[in-house]
Amino acid sequence: MIRAELVVRNLREVVTLREGPRPRVGDAMRELSIVDRGAVAVDRGRVAWVGAERALRSAVRLRAGGGVHDGAGGVLLPGWVDAHTHVLFAGNRAFELPLKVAGVSYAEIAARGGGLYATVRATRSATDAELLDSAARRVRAMRASGTTALEVKSGYALDHAGELRLLRLIPRLARRTGLPLVPTYLGAHAVAPEFRGRPDAYVDAVVRRTLPAVSRAGLARFCDVFCEPGFFTVRQSERILRAAARLGLGLKVHADEFVLSGGARLAARLGAQSADHLLAAAPDDRERLAAAGVTAVLLPVTAFALGGARRAPAREMVDAGVPVALGSDCSPNSWVESMPVVLAQAVHGGRMTPAEAITAATVNAAHASGLEGAGTVAVGRSADFAVYPVGSATEIGYRFDVRPTAVYRQGKSVSSA
Ligand code: FE
């Protein structure tokens, strides 16, 4: 008999994703390992049992003081893993919307000293408490939408001390919100204003000073680079990423977001963990990513926030056999906290099926974030899941912002935003 401190029952479906390879590619992205009319038992923060509800009584005994959650005929899904966020920033950029709406591009706004540089100014002048408070509000809103793990990038300080400060705040943000946060050093988000017109000197500073300090202090799992004209060339990006790899960091690339920058090619050549964005990636880049096993992290809300002229190439990437993951890209440029909204955009704009989108936002996003084992409801894994008021998992991605009625992290209810 299995002992449990929590049982969740009366569920139309339990989506487990417990079987199959990680990451998943091609047809395997549609295999969700669903238990119809299932139940889940949790003990000591971990999943202790998953099965059909009719087998629950003979398999599981509730501990004294344990609780039963009635799922009200809804669907239980693993917590979302958000594979790409810039959630740690100060201020907002509502003021630049008239420019965006008038068709001034992201790169042009940045070149005029606004956009990302406006956020850099706000972030540099914010106190630790202000940064933590605003980021914690966003992460709690993500959690209320069913997200139970996320990647968090630095990149809004750009100077040495400021980037180290942001990375040091990430574990504090994790403690405050109770979610695992994967820290990524993105000093090469843009050339620091002090190095304006001298990008190679800035790359020098990143490679010789900040990266070694990040590595020594163990502040990041990954290093990311914004490889795009006006930001960092392929040559500069490669220099930073090779230095990061030598220090033992995993690699990520902001690749081919605005134009075909060569970022996806670079990610494939270096065997990066992920290539992200890819709105302008070339068809043959898909084969390169698939062959190298690089996960494509797609950010469909950003495609929308950039004006909607391009869409996340999700269908094409899945069909080419690339492991596809999803992220919110939550930032002052594309401020979205809800992964169900991201999934709906991936389905409607990116032409994924709901099942593919669910896989992309759970096990594949976990792989892209170095969180193997997350994104599933499986015995022995952390009990991170959410219950949705829908009759079938396919309604996620069909409806635009389905909110969970309950979210559990390590078997504890964390529903309240
Ligand atoms: Fe990004």
Task: Provide an overview of this structure.
This protein has 417 residues and is of the alpha/beta class. It folds into 2 domains: 2-79 and 376-413, Roll (Urease, subunit C, domain 1), CATH 2.30.40.10; 80-368, Alpha-Beta Barrel (TIM Barrel), CATH 3.20.20.140. The protein contains 15 helices and 16 strands. Strands 1, 2, 3, 4, 5, 14, 15 and 16 form an 8-stranded mixed β-sheet that branches. It has an 8-stranded parallel β-sheet with strand order 6-7-8-9-10-11-12-13. Strand 7, helix 6 (160-177) and strand 8 (181-188) form a beta-alpha-beta unit. Helix 6 packs across helix 7 (199-216) and helix 9 packs parallel to helix 10 (283-292). It is globular and about 70 Å long. It starts with a strand and ends with a strand. The site of fe (iii) ion (FE) has 4 residues, from loops. Residues 84, 86, 254, 329 line the site of fe (iii) ion.
